[in-house]
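Collaborator request, handled under Task 6.
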Amino acid sequence: MKKAKGFRGCGTADGRPREECGVFAVYGHPDAARVAFFGLFALQHRGQESAGIATSDGCQIWERKGMGLVSEVFREDHLAKLPGRLAIGHVRYSTTGSSVISNAQPFLVHHGNEYYALAHNGNLINAQELRSQLEARGSIFQSTMDSEVIIHLMAPFFRTRFEDALTRALYQIEGAYSVVMLTKDRIVAARDPRGFRPLCLGKLDNHGWVIASETCAFDLVGAHYVREVAPGEIIVIDGEGLHSLTPFGPEKPAHCIFELIYFARPDSHVFGTNVYLTRKRLGHRLAREYRPDADLVMPFPDSGNYAALGYAEESALPFEMGMIRNHYVGRTFIQPTQPMRDFGVRVKLNPVRELLAGKRVLIVEDSIIRGTTSRNRVRNLRENGAKEIHMAVSCPPTRFPCPYGIDFSSKGELIAAQKGEEAAIADFIGLDSLHYLTLDGMVAATGLAPNSFCLACYTGAYPLTPPAELNKQCFETADLGL
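Structure tokens returned to the collaborator:
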């Protein structure tokens, strides 16, 4: 592993890390579009910018996609116009390419009297280089997503077996990808050789197969978890059944540990372990490392809930919901007037004054990215009478941006990279004390092998060295000559 030079990531408006994307596929169900709809509904936490479904009836491919949540993009009449027993779906949070309809997935193309649809979770770190080469050879791109590069790399080989065309394309790309593809008669899934992003296989009773980013999608559609799609594996499901291809040599695993800490739903099974129980174990480890004098333990809902439960369990301190979340706040709302200070903080979370007044409070958080959100919330707690405020974070300081499909801020915006020591970060946020879980403690809490994770956002040791310049608008700026 090499330490890369600094590169430009993407900021996040509220200081939280952003989800990546979610993919779903179903083969052999008479109402495949509806199954895909519910699968995407379960994966909504992975992306809220756009949603899409493509189906096949054995003769042609049908699609619908749009901006917004799954429930906003699809109505009953839309699903009725998506016939077939095969479907793939996607929910998007943009990590390369702007949040516009042309970048919504699944991405559908027509080539040689055949239609192909693709949905991708991850980020290709050599996409800029590959796109420049493809455009020099005459390729015309319809979007500014890195995902489209995969289709263009396949195009020269479509006259051969589909599986061979996909393998040749994947040999040329570097980075993180969990991909599902649809043709008129088959579903294909592929995962990168290091297994950055999760992807799993499930079985429907008497109605074929499903593939999803997380197992929580299986629970909703009534599928049984079979296994993970192995790193470097290509799965093909067609009229002859399920076939597994392993064209790539073994690589050192690089599972994104942030899936277990923050991104995956707590009811999912990811990388061979249960997310809910892993987060509780992270809290247990925190309590063994850091035990300030406190009267109660609380999370900032909902991100720190399960680690806070684990901390309270290990420390024997009472667990309290010191802030109450408003679950009915949409993605947009009427903007407050200037005198309504901190409206953006209070509209989502509001302290329980009587619980906090005069108390020494320990907050358990899953991560701190920019620190601005935590700073505003801590100030709100003090204004409501908290005597002392301590914070425990269930991962080490995030000092380096992620090029593999998480929209982390650039290094210059990461508070741990800017402030350095815990004391300086605590002072910025307004805490009496702050403790980050140690790297060894975090990895041990997963119960998995220490060498199975990508830890680059904490250490800067990237499994695949990213380009010096990387940002989500890289193709837009290139097209504009900026």
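The cover message to the collaborator said: "The longest helix spans residues 275-289. Residues 340 and 372 are 18 Å apart (CA to CA). Please let us know whether this matches your experimental observations."
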